[in-house]
Design brief:
mainly alpha; 192 residues
Length: 192
């Protein structure tokens, strides 16, 4: 089964079992599962780095990982958005997660991953958004600046130093973007 391969094949970290089970129940696109694994893998790299280098920054790493693993789950409903533009998957994904019994605190990432400039966005939302960009080496200055501001505020570093540190780490993650893109694109949009 192609979806099962997308969920299990190395080299990326596996998704949380609860998420993998949900994707199987939804008969999700193999490419969507591969994409979610790529973003989840990057989120794990980001949160791991933050834990070591910015321990004063209060972040719910488990929530970030769950958010990265489910951020595009609404594309099981809005299949056209797997290969084209659209934002219908965002509220649909949040509702799908809520309907599956997922806590609203975690379900929100499906709706917030593309709206990092909205009021009330938490650091966890910013990190899910950042992982969703940097996995393919896309740099978004305003998003990264919001993260830099959080890093500087939590650590007491000058903003320029927090920027340099984050920039170096993101460059390292971006260096592997071709492998992640190849992994994702090796799976079809539809299983049939």
């Amino acid at each position: 089964m192609t979806l099962r391969h997308a969920l299990d094949d190395p080299p990326l970290r596996p998704l949380p079992a609860q998420v993998a089970d949900l994707l199987l129940r939804l008969d999700a696109s193999p490419r969507l599962a591969a994409h979610l694994r790529a973003v989840h893998d990057v989120a794990a790299q980001l949160t791991g780095w933050l834990t070591v280098h910015y321990p004063a920054l209060v972040v719910d790493c488990d929530a970030v990982l769950f958010g990265a693993a489910t951020h595009d789950i609404g594309k099981t409903v809005y299949m056209a958005e797997l290969s084209g533009p659209g934002s219908g998957h965002e509220p649909a994904g949040q509702q799908l997660l809520l309907d599956a019994g997922i806590d609203p605190y975690l379900a929100r990432f499906a709706a917030t991953h593309a709206s990092w400039q909205s009021p009330g966005i938490e650091c966890e939302d910013l990190l899910v958004s950042l992982a969703d960009k940097i996995w393919k080496a896309k740099r978004v200055v305003d998003l990264e600046q919001l993260v830099v501001d959080r890093l500087a505020a939590a650590s007491g570093q000058e903003p320029w130093q927090a920027f340099v540190n984050l920039d170096d780490h993101l460059d390292g993650i971006a260096a592997d973007a071709d492998q992640r893109l190849a992994f994702q694109n090796s799976y079809p949009i539809t299983a049939g």
